[in-house]
Amino acid sequence: MERLETGIHAGRLTPAEYEANFSDLHPRLDNHEALVAADRCYFCYDAPCMTACPTSIDIPLFIRQISTGNPLGSAKTIFDQNILGGMCARVCPTEELCEQACVRNTAEERPVEIGRLQRYATDAAMQAGKQFYVRAEASGKRIAVVGAGPAGLAAAHRLAVKGHSVTIYDGREKSGGLNEYGIATYKTVDDFAQQEVDYIMSIGGIEVRHGALLGRDFSLSDLQAQYDAVFLGIGLAGVNALRIEGENLAGVDDAVDFIAALRQAEDKSDIAIGRRVVVLGGGMTAIDAAVQAKLLGAEEVTICYRRGKEHMNASEYEQDLASSKGVIIRHWLAPKSILSQDGKVAAIEVEYTKILDGRLVGTGETGVIAADQIFKAIGQTFEASGLGALRMESGRIAVDVEGRTSLDGVWAGGDCVFGGEDLTVSAVAHGRDAAESIHRTLSAAAAPAVAVA
Fold first, then answer.
1. Are 238 and 381 in contact (CB under 8 A)?
2. Surface-to-core class of residue 352, CB atoms within 10 Å of its CB (0-12 exposed, 13-18 middle, 19+ buried)
3. Considering the domain boundaries, does residue 348 fall inside one?
C-alpha cells in the first residue's frame, strides 16, 4: 500500500508515526518544572483567575501549596471544587478562562501555566491513590442520575459524599460521556478518562447501569416513582444536518462519531482516513477532527467555516494548533453541495459568504474543493424522549440557578440545559451545584418539624 493511497484507507502511517502523532500534547510537568511554574504566581488576594474559573477553584492557594512542596494538599484544594479537575486540566480552554485573566498575561509576559500546574497536582494524587473524602452516614435517600458524563459524575460524587445512594443510568458501554468519547485522543492519553471515572467511583455508594437509555428503557416518570430525586445530565446526542445534496454519500461522516471511534480504537492504524479531507464547522469538534485526520496521515485537511476567524467557537490557541499541524482553515465558505464519483465523495461545492445588514448571506460566487472524505462538525442538538412535561427553553431543559427543573424533585445540568456552555468545567459546576441543592432539599424534608410555642 502506498503511503498516501487515494480514497479512504487505514494504515497510512508506520506504527512509530502513529505513536508519535498521538502522544501526550502537554506532558505532565516534572517536580522542578512545577516549582518554577508555581513561583511565577503572584498569589493575588483578589484572584481574577479564580473568578474566571467556572468551578471557582482557589487557584492561588493550590499553586502556593505546590510551591511549598505539598502537591497532595494542592490536589485536595482542586477536588474540593472540581472532582474532575484532572480532565479539566487537560481539556479546559485555560487560555480563555483562568490564564486569560492572569495578571501576568500581558504583552511582555505569558500567564502562569495554571492548567499544567493543576494537572501536576491532580495526577500526583490519583497516581498515589490518595482519597480525600469519606462518605457521610447513610441518609437512606436514593437519587437517580441520568448520564455518566462530567455533569452526572460530578453530581453523583458529591451526593455520595453526602451519604446518599446514587444510581447512574447511561446508554453507552463506558462512563465518562464526552470525556471518554468526544475529546481528541492526544489530549487524554493512557485511558485517562476511565482512570478518572474509577477514582470518582471509589468513594462508594454509586452504582452505574450501562446500556440503559432514557426514552427507550425507562422514562423520567419511572425514575420519579422509584427515587427521591433525579438529576439529568444527558448532554447532546443529535448532530445537525447539512441539508444539502450529497449529504448521504459514502465518505460523509459525523465528526463526533469519527472522534469517538478513534478514542475507542486499540490500534490507530485501524482507523481509515481520506487523502483529502474537508471538515465543516468552526468549533472544538471541527478542530479535533481536522487535527486528528492530519495525524492519521491525511495529505490535505481543510476546515471550511461559514463566518470569519473572529466568530469561530474554537479558541485562537486551538486554531493555531490546527495550523501548526498543517490544517488549512478557510473562512466565509458555506457548503452548497457534495459532488460524487462512482457513488463516493469526490469534492464539495462551497459558496462564499458575507455579513449583510447583520445577516449571513451567500454572495453567489462558488468554488469546488477536492475531497474524498467530509466530516460534519456543525453543532449538536438536544434529542431526548421520555421527559414528559418537563419545561423546555430554546430546545433545551429550562432550569433555575440551582439546576431545578419545572418538575418537583428533578434537576438538570450540563449541555442539555438552556445556557449550557459546551465545556467540561461548566458541566462539572452544574452537577456539583445541583447535588448541593438536592442535598439541601432532601435534608430539609427529612428534618423534624420545630414546635412553635
1. yes
2. middle
3. yes
- Domain residues for the domain of 374 are 240-380
What pLDDT score does 385 carry? 84
Pairing, β 344-356 against β 359-370 = antiparallel
Query: Residue 204 belongs to a domain with what CATH number?
Result: 3.50.50.60
Tell whether the model's pLDDT for residue 94 goes beyond 50: yes
Would you call 261 exposed, middle or buried from its count of C-beta atoms within 10 A (0-12, 13-18, 19+)?
Answer: middle
CB 282 within 8 A of CB 303: yes
Domain stop point among 322, 357, 380: 380
| Cell numbers standing for residue 120 | 501536576
**Integer distance in angstroms from the first to the last C-alpha of the chain?**
89
* Amino acid at the residue 37: A
Q: What is the per-residue pLDDT across 210-237, written as a single tens digit (0 to 9) for each?
A: 999 999 999 999 999 999 999 999 999 8
Distances (CA, A) of 262 to 10, 287, 325: 12, 15, 18
Q: How far is CA 98 from CA 23, 88, 139, 150, in A?
A: 25, 12, 37, 19
Q: For 186, phi and psi rounded to 5 degrees? A: -75, -10
Whether 15 is covered by a domain: the verdict is no
The reported pLDDT for the residue numbered 419 is 82
Question: Which residue is it, cell 459546576?
Answer: 429
Whether the pLDDT of residue 81 is over 80: the answer is yes
Task: Return the half-sphere exposure (C-beta side, CA atoms, 13 A cut-off) of residue 68.
Answer: 11
Single pTM value for the model? 0.93
Provide the H-helix boundaries in 296-408: 316-324
Residue spans of alpha helices (H) in 298-388: 316-324
Q: What's the chain's length in residues? A: 453
Same domain, 244 and 376: yes
With beta carbons less than 8 A apart as the criterion, state whether 186 and 23 touch. yes
For 184, the grid coordinates are 481528541
Does 376 share its domain with 244?
yes
Q: Is residue 96 included in any domain, yes or no?
A: yes
- Count of structural domains, the chain: 3
In a domain, 102, yes or no: yes
Cell 456543525 -> residue: 378
- Residue finishing a domain among 127, 151, 166: 127
Residue 2 has pLDDT above 70, yes or no: no
* 251 shares a domain with 225: no
- Reported as a single tens digit per residue, the pLDDT across 240-292 is 889 999 999 999 999 999 999 999 999 999 999 999 999 999 999 999 999 99
Alpha helices in 39-112 (DSSP H): 48-52, 59-67, 71-81, 85-91, 98-101
Residues 216 and 263 grouped into a single domain: no
